[in-house]
């Protein structure tokens, strides 16, 4: 009886953990000096998280001396690609976003070049001060998001309180902070921000779930009854040249039918995104480095099989090591990139046991190192 209860609890905890991991992640990115935009952001988060299908984090584009926001972390531009959706909040500056927000987004050239924000939902809310040109400011904000290919989600018309003067608009929540004798944001403005967050979460969650299902279906369809060469071709994967050893060792060793390979994130002779994850590089950059490392391993494996990857019987083990700060806990999320790529290329033969761990440093300042063991014919 006791074992049954323990097993049931374990199953429930595992189910809850899986549900939590599958939640859509939304960034609420703000610039706020006086605190008005930050107050609206907190209401937006309430709406986003109301139904428990999405999580939200508030980050600012630059530090501020306002004590209200002393614990709000500062974002880096590359991390925008890590989220399923982004809500942007800014004061209105002469019919536009603030200079600080503009300056932050001007650093998104790499995101634009590699289309990393394309297809991600975005919504905008603003603290409008006197209220002048608040709608124009939101529309001008949309221009930048449209260039990135983001899906723009307006607030809609629901529940706008028309009994008092306020900044809310169909384009997004705003707050008229300069209204004399009134607390801003008003209750109506806060309520509208909550509704905007809730509506935005519906869109983000729907696209997140569809994307997750599509990836799973794609992975299944692309790994059944196909050769490795066909999978590589259909996925558009081009294996790199085998990295030259940096010391007195060989790219691989064979013992019986087992092939042992170790690789770091070398690309064209240089380490891709070197440094410590969370300090020097973002998680998305670490994932890109992990992808490159796994490509290097498969390139070495191709050499070990004399160019015939069909000789691979099974991926036995992958061990991922990541250069992280103390207290980092998302190693498994990073390693999933390598595991998914392996299964995409080898199908069921790519499924493996796995270990993942953190390290204070890695060779050549690589952010990732992977050890792989394959069984071949």
UniProtKB/TrEMBL annotation:
PROSITE patterns: FLAVODOXIN_LIKE. Coiled coil: none annotated. Transmembrane segments: none annotated. This is Atu1372/SO_1960 family protein. InterPro entries: Endoribo_LPSP/chorism_mut-like, Flavodoxin/NO_synth, Flavoprotein-like_sf, FMN_Rdtase-like_dom, RutC-like_sf. It comes from Paenimyroides ceti. Residues 26-200 form the Flavodoxin-like domain. It holds the Pfam family YjgF_endoribonc.
């Amino acid at each position: 009886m006791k074992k049954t209860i323990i097993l049931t609890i374990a199953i429930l905890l595992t189910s809850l953990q899986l549900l939590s991991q599958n939640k859509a992640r939304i960034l609420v990115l703000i610039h706020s000096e006086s605190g008005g935009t930050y107050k609206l952001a907190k209401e937006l988060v309430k709406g986003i998280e109301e139904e428990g299908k999405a999580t939200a984090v508030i980050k600012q584009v630059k530090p501020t001396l306002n004590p209200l926001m002393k614990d709000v972390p500062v974002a880096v531009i590359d991390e925008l690609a890590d989220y399923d959706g982004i809500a942007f909040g800014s004061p209105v500056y002469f019919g536009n976003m603030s200079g600080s927000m503009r300056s932050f987004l001007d650093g998104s050239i790499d995101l634009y070049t590699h289309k990393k924000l394309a297809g991600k939902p975005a919504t905008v809310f603003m603290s409008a001060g006197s209220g002048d040109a608040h709608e124009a400011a939101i529309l001008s904000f949309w221009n930048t998001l449209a260039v990135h290919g983001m899906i723009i989600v307006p607030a809609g018309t629901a529940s706008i309180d028309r009994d008092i003067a306020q900044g809310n608009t169909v384009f997004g929540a705003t707050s008229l902070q300069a209204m004399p004798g009134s607390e801003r944001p008003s209750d109506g403005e806060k309520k509208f921000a909550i509704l905007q967050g809730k509506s935005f979460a519906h869109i983000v969650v729907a696209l997140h779930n569809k994307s997750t299902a599509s990836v799973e279906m794609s992975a299944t369809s692309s790994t059944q009854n196909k050769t490795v060469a066909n999978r590589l071709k259909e996925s558009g994967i081009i294996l790199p040249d085998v990295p030259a050893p940096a010391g007195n060792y060989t790219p691989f060793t064979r013992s019986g039918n087992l092939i042992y390979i170790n690789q770091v994130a070398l690309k064209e002779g240089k380490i891709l995104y070197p440094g410590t994850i969370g300090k020097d590089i973002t998680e998305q950059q670490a994932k890109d480095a992990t992808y490159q490392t796994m490509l290097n391993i498969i390139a070495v494996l191709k050499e070990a099989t004399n160019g015939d990857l069909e000789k691979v019987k099974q991926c036995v083990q992958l061990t991922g090591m990541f250069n992280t700060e103390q207290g980092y806990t998302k190693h498994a999320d990073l390693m999933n990139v390598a595991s998914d790529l392996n299964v995409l290329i080898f199908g069921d033969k790519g499924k493996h046991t796995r270990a993942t761990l953190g390290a204070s440093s890695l060779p050549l300042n690589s952010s990732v190192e992977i050890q792989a063991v394959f069984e071949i014919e």
